[in-house]
Amino acid sequence: MRIVVVGVGALGSHVVQLGRSLPVQWKVIDFDRIEAKNLLAQFHTRMGVGKNKALALQQAMQGLFGVKIEAVPHRLAADNVEALLGDAELVVDCLDNAEARTLVQQFVREREIACVHGALAPGGELGRVVWDHLFVIDSEDTPGQETCEGGEHLAFVAQTAATVAQAITLYVGDRRQVSTQLLPSRSMVLDSR
Amino acid sequence: MRYARLNITWNGQNGDLPDPVSWHASDKEILRWATEAVQSGSVPGITKTGHVRMHTFVVDRFPANKEIREDRIYVRPRTPFGAGSRGASPCA
What is the ipTM of this complex? Predict the structure, then answer.
């Protein structure tokens, strides 16, 4: 199965490393570069600072685990969405803005490609792992709102990423689509089909 | 009348309203009921809070299906992020 992960920051980078034993082909897309501040919450290391996140993750997966993944160091846009997502059998949306999420959602719905979305509340109080048929794209409360303050949310970010990786694992196994809502103290299955 | 269980996430806490609500209630009504319930301390699992503002919160509706046999409505804060590639937060 060919899985494309869009956005390999806080959620996406952990999703890929947690899914490394799956019998799938990974492609990761991210235009952004690693900054020192990213190291507290993302599966990126000091060696990667200054590098593109997709390329750095590709290098880390190969170097640490011997796992080959395809990396695309570009921003997903209307004029390249077909080229970047067109061959996907499963799209994993770990983006951080409504505009790009909308682009992904429109494309997967038009092409009937399976898609699971990972999403976090700004304060690290809520995470959602929701399959596309149920996913509603949230805008920010205020433009430019911060994802979270400090590195105290790392465990919850990783917990949400692990839930995304588990959703992918179930889908790869028997095409089951399980949607989940998580709090630091509790998780709830929203839907399963 | 079709009823649903109402689940509320507020301030890192979560709980169900003890009584079901109408599935057909508007989002505005749901948010008002959720706000009043948290303010009055009537949601098990959520500490009574004097000043509650849920005007930016989202109302999700999940119909019953083969595996989960009850209609459910969730009130929750927005979840706009996944990559965290913006801003000056150390978490980004």
Answer: 0.78
